[in-house]
Every structure is written in C-alpha cells, then in structure tokens.
Amino acid sequence: MSSERRLELELQVAEARANAQACCSCISGSISFIVFTCLAIWVFKGVDDPKSSIQSLYLPALNKTSLDTTTPTNNTLFFELQLSNSNDHWGIYYGNVNLTFYDNPISTRSHVIGNYTIPRFYQGYNKKATKRGAVEVNTTLVSQAFCSPKGYMAFRAEMETVIRFRIQSLFKSKRKKLMRRANVVINEQGVLIVNQDGIKLI
Q1: pLDDT per residue rounded down to tens, the chain (202 residues)
Q2: Which CATH number fits domain 51-201: 2.60.40, 1.25.40, 2.70.98, 1.10.287?
Q3: pTM score, whole prediction
Q4: DSSP β-bridge partners for residue 65
Q5: Are residues 86 and 48 in contact, defined by beta-carbon separation less than 8 angstroms?
Q6: Could you state, in order of their start, the residue ranges of all structural domains in the chain?
Q7: Which residues, 6 or more positions from 31, have their beta carbon under 8 angstroms from its beta carbon?
C-alpha cells in the first residue's frame, strides 16, 4: 500500500473518531439536559405555598374597659403574624412582607389605617416563623370602622410578598407573588377575637 493511500485511510479514521466523539458529546449533553429538566419538574411539583395567619391583634384605642386614661389616645396597633412552611424538603425565601390594615372588610368602602413591612428572610422546611410588630394607625378612621351592637369592630388585614422555593442548595424556583387577606374582629377590649389557630389569611 502506497504511503498516500495509508495517509488517506488514517485521515478517514481520525475523521470518523472525531464525528463519533462529537455525536457522543451531543447525546450526553441532551441526556443531561433531559435528566436535569425532569429532576427540576419532580422537585418543584407539589410544593405548597406557605400558610399565614394573624395570631393576635391589640389596639389600645378601642379598649373600652381599660382604666388607663392614656389608652384612648394610644394609636398603636400591635400584631403577631405567623408564617408556616409545611413542605418536607423545600425552604422558602421571602421578600419584604408588606402588611396593610384597613378600616372596613369591604374593599370598596375601606381606607388604609396603617401598614408595616417585615424585612426579607429565609425559612427552613417544616418551620414556623412568628413576626411581631407595632403600627401607628389613623385613629380617626379607626373610630369610623364598622361597629356591631356589642361594640365589636371589623377590619381587614392584607399581606403581600414575593417568595422563592429552595431544595437543599441545588435548585431555586422562580419568584412567585403571594397575596393573602382576612377580615378581623376586635372586641370591646381592643383584642382580636380568634381561635387557637389564629385568623387564616387566604
């Protein structure tokens, strides 16, 4: 066999090997992409949004039973918010959690009486976070809130934030906007009427 023919055969073999390697790399990349995509779908399928509830509210200005003469002029609303992550493997990143309180349960008739921002934070899986705060409210609007014959007053609370889910340190989901609300009733002592599970924001 001539040297020219031998060189031609060697070039053909080298070219065939290069094509085979490129094909394997392409197949391997496609398989990796498919596996990663399927894993990501499996990971984030069935993830539950966090549950939120108002555990307590106290508005001294509405406490008609207090003997403290400064109580009627105290325009502070004290609250306790609970955020619960019931997922087994997924942590949750919260953006700033914005709470807004209104003087009427009916949105078309309501006015903002106060708002509060809870700074962003991370919550592990199967964890509960309790956030407490105090808001200065507009007592003029508060005094005009809907009042029952028993002296109970009805308000509305709204929560808005953006969340992301995380599993271990592998994946993070896209950001998701979360909005929740609930009507709350305060009695003649200025205290939220609530059961042991709190008032759920839905």
Answers
A1: 566 665 555 556 556 565 656 555 556 556 666 655 655 555 556 799 999 999 999 999 999 888 887 788 899 999 999 999 999 989 999 999 999 999 999 988 899 999 999 999 999 999 999 999 999 999 899 988 888 888 899 999 999 999 999 987 778 899 999 999 999 999 999 999 988 889 999 9
A2: 2.60.40
A3: 0.79
A4: none
A5: yes
A6: 1-45, 51-201
A7: none
